[in-house]
Amino acid sequence: MPPFRFVDRADAGRRLADAVRRAVPDLKQRRALLLGIPRGGVAVTAAMAERLALPLDVLVVRKIGAPGQPELAVGAVGPDGKAVYQPAVLEALGLRPDDLRAEEARAREEVHRRLAAYGAGPPDTTDLAIVVDDGIATGATVLAALAWLKAARPELRLLVAAPVAPPEARKRLASLADRIVLLAEPEPFYAVGQFYRHFPQLEDDAVLTLLDRHRRR
User: Fold this and answer.
1) What would the pLDDT profile of 14-31 be if each residue is shown by its tens digit?
2) Tell me: domain 9-214, CATH 1.20.120.140, correct?
3) Does the pTM exceed 0.70?
């Protein structure tokens, strides 16, 4: 297993903020909004919001885990309740969407619960959405987020930012993202948590505290 690259999500967020600033030199002139994918992505996004002096909101997406491997995302459900699957991952596992209806239903239920808890809406006055997660594995969760944003605001520019992702993730994300900022693309890649020293699960209370502190008014 490779050594960790980030102390915690806040450390990753600060470093990611600096990388985004370099990637978008005119960031201060843009109507940019940071959109964190809960739960862990919100902690990264909060550190970025402080560093970049940008507003933050939440983008509720829930992964659809593989049967017997709930941490392996084969797809995801977006805020509109629609499921987006990763064909390459399904093929590798010998699965079809019909095999995952129970997992899909659980993900959709969790999306509804989190929308009720956190609140969320399309970024109506934003011209650049920076979609942030604490790491990308298959890319299914982020792709579902991007698909929803494209449907809600086709003209919106989309930037994906994450501390770490496997090398193949960039190609998948490029189908919907206008720009991608990744701090590390290591190989081999087993799980996002292996690249953090401290990687605790965030609870709803922690997410709500961060949103209350940094959310756009």
Assistant:
1) 999 999 999 999 998 999
2) no
3) yes
